[in-house]
C-alpha cells in the first residue's frame, strides 16, 4: 500500500513536472534556433538537451504549429529533419526597408522543368533529361548546381559512366518540402 | 511574319508541338500528322535567321515529323492485321509518348512554381560568430600620436617602394625581344659556327620568354630553309646546321 502511494505520488509529480518542462524546453529550443541561425538537426538539439530524438521532433512540430497559430513573425521551417527560423514571406516589404536583402531571382521555366525531372526521376543522367525535354539542358543543369539545388550523386554503370543527378537538401528548403515524399503526387495530374 | 517573334518563346520543339496541338484542339492520341507538320514547318520557316541556341533541336524535330508523315503514307503491311500490333506500328506512337512525358513534367513545374514563390521571400539569419574576446594587451599603452606616427612611416615607405617599382618597370621594357632580332642573331651565330645546338643559343637567355622567341626564330629559319635541324632522341638537344 505504501509502495503504491509512493508510486502514485511519483507519477503525479512527474506529470506536472513534465508539463512545466515542455514549456521550458520549447523556450530553450527557441533560443537555440535563434542563436544558431543555421539549420539545426534533431540530433543536435537532442544532444544539447539530452532528450530523446522522437520527443524533440514532437516538440519541434508542436512549436511550428504554435508559431503559426500565434501569428508569430518568425516561422520555423523543417526540411530533411532539420529546423531553422525564418521570416514570413508576407512581411518581405518591411524587411526590405530594413535590410535590403538581394531580391532572389526565381527559376526560369526551363530550370523548373529540368528540376522537376530531376526531382521525380532521380538519380537521372543529363542525357535522360535532354531526351525528355527535347533540348540540351547543359546550361540549365549547371545553373541548378551552382544554386546548390542539384548535385551529382554517382555514376551510371553504363558506357561512358555518365554522371547521375539528384536534388539536395537545399532543394527541399527552396520549395518548402519536408522531404521528397512531400513532392506532389504525379497521379493527380491530368493530361 | 509574326511567327518569328513567337518561336523564341518556346522552350523547345516539344513545347511548340504542344502549343500547336492545343491551339488546333487536336487529339493527342490521334494527331493529324500532315496538319501538324505543316503548321510546325510554318513556325520554324525562318528559324535560320534567328539566333537561337536550340535551333538545331527544332530542325531535328521537323525532320522527325516529316519522317513520320512519310511513314504514315506507306501502305500498311497486309500480314499484320492484328489490332494490337498495328497500334505498336503507329509511326506516331513514339512521338506521342515523348510528348506526354514532356507534358507531365511541364505540369509538375507549374505546381512547383507557387511552392517556390512561397519560400523565396523568407529571410534567414546567418550563423553568429561569437568570439571570446579577451582583453587585447597589445594596444594598452598606445596613444593617438603613436598611431599617427606609425601611419606616416607606412605612407613614406609605400611611396619609396612605388618609385623603385616604377624604375624596374622601365628597365624591363628595354629588354623586349623580337623574333626578327633573334632570327638575325641565329643567322649570325650559324654563319660563324656552321653548326650549333639549341641549348647554346639560349645560354644567355634571361627568361622563358626569350627562350620561346629564340625557338620561334629557329622555326622561321627552318621554314626559310636557311637551316636544318636534327634531334638524336626524344627531348634531346636540337642540332642546328647551316644549309
Overall CATH class of the largest domain in chain A: Mainly Alpha
Q: Specify the biggest β-sheet of chain A.
A: 3 strands, antiparallel
Helix-residue proportion of chain B: 55-70%
Number of domains of chain B: 2
CA(first)-CA(last) distance of chain A: 71 Å
- Report the largest inter-chain contact: A-B, 44 and 39 residues
Low-confidence stretches of chain B: none
- CATH architecture of the largest domain in chain A, by name, is Orthogonal Bundle
What spatial order of strands do you see in the largest sheet of chain B? Answer: 1-3-2
CATH topology of the largest domain in chain A: Arc Repressor Mutant, subunit A
The helix/strand order of chain A is HEHHEEHHEHHEEH
Shape of chain B: flat
In whole angstroms, the N-to-C terminal distance of chain B is 68 Å
Helix content of chain A: 40-55%
How many domains of chain A, as an integer?
Answer: 2
Estimate the mean pLDDT confidence of chain A: 87
Are there runs of chain A of 5+ residues with pLDDT below 50, and where?
none
Number of helices of chain A: 8
Number of strands of chain A: 6
Binned strand content of chain B: 5-15%
Helix/strand order of chain B, N-terminal first: HHHHHHHHEHHEE
Amino acid at each position: 500500500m505504501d509502495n503504491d502511494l509512493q508510486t502514485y505520488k511519483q507519477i503525479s509529480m512527474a506529470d506536472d513536472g513534465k508539463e512545466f518542462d515542455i514549456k521550458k524546453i520549447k523556450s530553450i529550443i527557441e533560443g537555440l534556433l535563434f542563436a544558431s541561425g543555421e539549420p539545426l538537426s534533431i540530433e543536435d538539439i537532442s544532444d544539447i538537451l539530452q532528450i530523446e530524438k522522437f520527443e524533440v521532433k514532437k516538440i519541434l512540430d508542436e512549436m511550428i504549429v504554435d508559431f503559426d497559430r500565434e501569428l508569430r513573425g518568425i516561422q520555423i521551417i523543417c526540411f530533411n529533419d532539420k529546423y531553422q527560423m525564418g521570416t514570413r514571406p508576407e512581411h518581405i516589404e518591411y524587411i526590405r526597408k530594413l535590410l535590403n536583402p538581394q531580391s532572389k531571382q526565381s527559376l526560369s521555366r526551363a530550370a523548373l522543368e529540368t528540376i522537376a525531372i530531376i526531382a521525380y526521376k532521380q538519380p537521372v543522367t543529363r542525357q535522360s533529361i535532354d531526351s525528355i525535354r527535347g533540348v540540351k539542358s547543359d546550361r540549365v543543369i549547371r545553373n541548378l548546381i551552382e544554386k546548390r539545388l542539384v548535385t551529382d550523386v554517382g555514376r551510371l554503370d553504363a558506357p561512358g559512366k555518365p554522371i547521375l543527378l539528384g536534388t539536395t537538401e537545399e532543394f527541399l528548403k527552396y520549395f518548402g518540402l519536408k522531404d521528397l515524399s512531400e513532392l506532389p503526387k504525379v497521379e493527380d495530374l491530368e493530361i | 511574319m509574326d511567327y518569328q517573334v513567337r518561336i523564341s518563346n518556346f522552350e523547345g520543339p516539344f513545347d511548340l508541338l504542344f502549343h500547336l496541338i492545343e491551339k488546333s484542339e487536336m487529339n493527342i492520341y490521334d494527331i493529324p500528322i500532315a496538319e501538324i507538320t505543316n503548321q510546325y514547318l510554318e513556325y520554324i520557316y525562318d528559324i535560320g535567321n534567328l539566333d537561337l541556341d536550340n535551333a538545331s533541336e527544332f530542325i531535328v524535330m521537323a525532320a522527325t515529323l516529316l519522317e513520320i508523315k512519310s511513314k504514315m503514307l506507306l501502305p500498311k503491311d497486309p500480314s499484320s492485321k492484328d489490332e494490337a500490333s498495328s497500334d505498336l506500328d503507329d509511326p506516331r506512337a513514339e512521338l506521342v509518348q515523348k510528348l506526354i512525358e514532356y507534358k507531365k513534367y511541364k505540369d509538375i513545374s507549374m505546381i512547383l512554381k507557387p511552392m517556390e514563390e512561397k519560400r523565396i521571400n523568407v529571410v534567414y539569419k546567418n550563423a553568429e560568430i561569437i568570439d571570446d574576446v579577451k582583453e587585447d594587451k597589445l594596444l594598452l599603452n598606445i596613444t593617438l600620436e603613436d598611431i599617427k606616427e606609425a601611419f606616416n612611416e607606412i605612407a613614406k615607405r609605400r611611396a619609396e617602394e612605388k618609385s623603385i617599382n616604377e624604375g624596374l618597370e622601365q628597365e624591363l621594357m628595354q629588354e623586349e625581344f623580337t623574333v626578327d632580332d633573334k632570327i638575325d642573331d641565329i643567322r649570325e651565330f650559324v654563319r660563324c659556327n656552321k653548326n650549333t645546338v639549341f641549348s647554346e643559343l639560349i645560354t644567355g637567355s634571361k627568361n622563358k620568354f626569350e627562350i620561346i622567341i629564340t625557338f620561334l626564330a629557329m622555326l622561321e629559319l627552318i621554314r626559310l630553309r636557311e637551316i636544318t635541324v636534327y634531334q638524336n632522341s626524344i627531348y634531346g638537344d636540337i642540332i642546328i646546321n647551316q644549309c
